[in-house]
Amino acid sequence: MKFKGKAWSMLMLLVIVAVVAAGCGSGNNNGGANAGTDGKGTKPAAGSKNGNNVVVGLNANFITLDPHNAGDTNSISGARSMYEGLMGFDENMSLKPVLAESYSISDDGLVYTIKLKQGVKFHDGTDFNSEAVKINIARIQDEKNNLRMRKSFAKVATVETPDANTVVITLSEPYNAFLNKLAMGLMISPAALEKYGEKIGQNPVGTGPFKFKEWVEGDRLVVEKNADYWQAGLPKVDSVTFKPVPENGSRTAMLKTGEADFIYPMPTEQVNLLETDKNIVIDKTDSTIVRYVTLNTMKKPFDDVKVRQAINYAIDKDAFIKVVKSGLGSALDSSMSSKTQYYSKQEGYGYDLEKAKQLLKEAGYPEGFSAEIWGENDSETMKGMQFLAQQLALAGIKLDVKSMEGATLSDQINSAKTPEEAKIQMWFVSWSPSSGDADGATRGLFSSEMFPPAGSNTAYYKNDNVDKWIAEANKSIDANNAKSIYADIQKQIWNDAPWAFLGVDQVISGKRSYLEGVKVYPDGSVNVREAEVKQ
Amino acid sequence: MGRYALQRLLGVIPLLFVVSVLVFMFIHLIPGDPARLVAGKDATLEEINGIREQLGLNDPLWRQYIDYMGNLFKGDLGNSIRSGLPVSEMLASRFMPTIWLTIFSMVWAVIIGVLIGIISAVKRNKWPDHVGMITAISGISVPGFWLGLVLIQVFSVQLGWFPTGGVDSWSSYVLPSLTLGAGIMSMLARFSRTSMLESMREDYIRTGRAKGLHEFVVVGRHALRNSLIQVVTVAGLQFGFLLGGSVMVETVFSIPGLGRLLVDSIAFRDYTVIQAELLLFATEFILINLVVDLLYGVLNPKIRFDSN
C-alpha cells in the first residue's frame, strides 16, 4: 500500500507540473514582461521576422474589398493598397493627381477635362483608359447597384471619352468637393467587373501597387507586389498581409514579437511603455476625427445660446484630452479638424467657470439644470461622459449619463421623425468626413435639411445664413471663395455653439524601426504604397 | 439503441423549427435598423431606404420569415447584410478554427481534469488533494481574459515559443486552448473528485478491495467508470458551449471563429448571419445532448433506451 500511495502522489505531481508550469512561469516572468524592452531573453532581433513581407495589424475585420461600396476605414485601407483613383490624397489629406496626369475645370465649374496617365495597366493586364473611367462611374451611378459611393457622383451628368486618354466629366451643377469625391472613386478593371459581377468585392482587380492574393474573411488579407506598377521603383516589398487583431494587448504583443511590423491603432495606454523600446517607433499625427457633444438647440434649456456657450466655457478641454484621451489629442477649435479642407481656427471658449455661471444666470438658470447625455457603451465614451458630468456639475449642470449599445442608440436618435418628437438632449460622439472635404464635415451636421433621420444634424441646428452658405460653398468654383465662405460658416457655428466642442483625436500607430513608408492618414486609413523594409 | 438515436434525430426537426421562429422573432424585436447601420452615418435617407428595399426589410415580418425558411430549405442561408458575402461561406470559414479550438481545449481539460479529480479523491485530505483542489480553484477563478494576455506576454513576447494569435499553424492553438480549457479542466476536476468520492464509498469497491484486486483496478475500473456519468454530462455541456465559439479567447488570440462573428453580427444587426449561427448552435447542442445520452448507456449498461 505504501508503494501505491507513492505512485498516486507521483502521478499527481506529474499532472500538477504539467498544468501549473504555465502558471508558475507567468508568476516568475511577469515582472520581467512589463519591463521587458531591454533586449533580454529571446526577443526578436532588430531585423524583420517577415523578410521583405510586411504584416500590418489592424483592430477590425475587413467588410468588403469593393472600393465603390466600402464605408469602414479598414476596408478603405485594404482597397487602397490595390486600387487607385484619378485623384488621391497625400498624408495631409491634400489632393493630388494619381491616375490623372492633369486636369482642368471650366470657368463655370461644370466641365472637368482630365488627361489620364498613359501606359497604366490593370492587374489583369487590360489597359486603363478613358473607357474604364466611364464604366466605373456608370457602375457607381447605377441605382440598381445601390453602392455607397453613389451620392458622391450624383451630380455627374455626362462622361465623355474624346480619346483613350481623355475624360470629360460634366456636372449638372458646380460641386466644390468633386475632386475629393473623385479621389474616393477608385478604378476597377472593366474586364474584372464583367467577369466577377457582384463578386468583385472578393476578387479585386485594380491598378495599384499591390495585387490581390487572398482574403480569408476575419483572418487576413494578403496583397502581393505588382511588378508592372506604373511608378518605377514601387512597390519595395514583396507582399503586405493585413491582420485583424481586435484586442489592444494582443496587437501590441504582435508588434513586440515582430509578428506584426506595423499596428494601427496603437493603444493609447501602451504608448508610454513602448516609446522606450528602441526597436519600436510610434507615430502620432492629428486626424480628421473630431469629438463633441451635440446640444439639441430646439429643446429647453439648450435653445438659449447662452446656455450652450456656458457649457463650452465650463469644460476644460485640455483636461478632457489628458483624462479621456491619455493626453494624445488636441483641443477642437472649430467645427472641423485642422486636417480638414478649408479649416479656419476659432478663438474663445477657454476654460472659465465663472463666466459659465454668469452666462447661465443671464439665461435664467442661476442654479443650473439637469439634463441627459447619451453615448455608446464602449469604455472610452463612458469615461468621456463621466468626465463631462463631473465638469458640468461644477457649473450646476447635473448630467444623467445614459450609455447605450450603438445600434440601439442609433434607433433612439433616428426614430424621431420630426424635431418635436426628438428626445435627444446631449450626445457625446465623434465625426470624420470620409473624403476629408469641408462639405463632408459641415452639411450633414449643420444643414437644417439634415435633421434626423435624414442626416446627422442631431443638434437640430438651424441658421438660415449657414444653410445658404453651405449651398453657396458647394457651388463655388473658386477655391479662395469657398475658403472664405467656409470661414464664415465655422465662425457662425462656433458662436452659436450647437456643440460642446471638445477635441481632435490623434491617429497613433506603432511600427518596427526597420519599416519605412507605411503611414496612417488623418482619416485613419493605412497607406502601404511606399512600404520598405530596411534590413 | 439505433432506433432510439434515429427517433431522437427526427425529433430535432420540430425543435429546430421552434428555435427558428423564436430566433427570428427576437432578433427583429431588438432595436436597431440594419439598413441604417450598413449605410453608415453619412448616408442619405434615400440610400437607407434603397438598402432596406433591397434586403426585403420593408416586407411584413411573416413574409420575411417565410422567404427565409423557403431559402433555408433550398440550402441557401442568404448573404450577410453587412458584407454581402454568402453566409454559408462565412460560417464554413469560421467553423474550423472554432472546432479545433474546442477539441484541443476539451482534450487536455478532460484528461488533466479527470486525473486531478481521481488523484484528489484517492488521496483525500492529503497534500495531492490540496494541491489538486488549489489548482482547480485557481483555474476557475482566473479570468480567461487575463490568463490569455499573461500567456501571450510570457510565452510569445518573452520566450517566443508560440505566436501571439491567429490560426496560421498548429502552434497557434496552444495558448488559446490552454486559456479556454483552464476553467473546464478545473470544473471537471471538482466534479470527478466529488463523484469519485461517492463511488468509493459504494459496497462494490469494498468488495473489490476485499477480493484483493489491485488498487489501480479498483479505482480505474470500478470507481472511475461509475463516476464518469456526471463527468460526461458536464463535459458534454461544456463542449456544446465551446462550439458556440468563445468571444473572449477568439478576441484575445485574434482567432476568426464563430464567437467573434456572432458578436460582430449582433453589433450590426446582421440578421442573416445571426439567424444562421443560432440555428447552427441549436443543432450542435441537440446533437451533443444526444451523444451524451447514448454515452450513458455505454458507461452504465443498466441504462436502457426504450424507443417507446
UniProtKB/TrEMBL annotation, chain A:
It is found in: Periplasm. GO terms for biological process: dipeptide transport. Keywords: Periplasm, Signal, Transport. The keyword Transport applies. One of its GO terms (molecular function) is peptide transmembrane transporter activity. GO terms for cellular component: ATP-binding cassette (ABC) transporter complex; outer membrane-bounded periplasmic space. Pfam families: SBP_bac_5. Its main location: periplasm. Residues 1-21 form the signal peptide. Residues 95-448 form the Solute-binding protein family domain. Part of the ABC transporter complex GsiABCD involved in glutathione import. Binds glutathione. PANTHER family: GLUTATHIONE-BINDING PROTEIN GSIB, PERIPLASMIC BINDING COMPONENT OF ABC TRANSPORTER. Belongs to the bacterial solute-binding protein 5 family. This is Glutathione-binding protein GsiB. The lineage of its organism: Bacteria, Bacillati, Bacillota, Bacilli, Bacillales.
Automatic annotation (TrEMBL), chain B:
The chain crosses the membrane at residues 9-30, 99-122, 134-161, 173-191, 231-258, 278-299. Residues 95-296 form the ABC transmembrane type-1 domain. One of its GO terms (biological process) is transmembrane transport. Pfam families: BPD_transp_1 (PF00528), BPD_transp_1_N (PF19300). It is a multi-pass membrane protein. The keyword Cell membrane applies. GO terms for cellular component: plasma membrane. It is found in: Cell inner membrane; Cell membrane. SUPFAM superfamilies: MetI-like. The keyword Transcription does not apply. Its main location: membrane. Keywords: Cell inner membrane, Cell membrane, Membrane, Transmembrane, Transmembrane helix, Transport. InterPro entries: BPD_transp_1_N, MetI-like, MetI-like_sf. Belongs to the binding-protein-dependent transport system permease family. Part of the ABC transporter complex GsiABCD involved in glutathione import. Probably responsible for the translocation of the substrate across the membrane. This is Glutathione transport system permease protein GsiC. It comes from Paenibacillus radicis (ex Gao et al. 2016). The lineage of its organism: Bacteria, Bacillati, Bacillota, Bacilli, Bacillales.
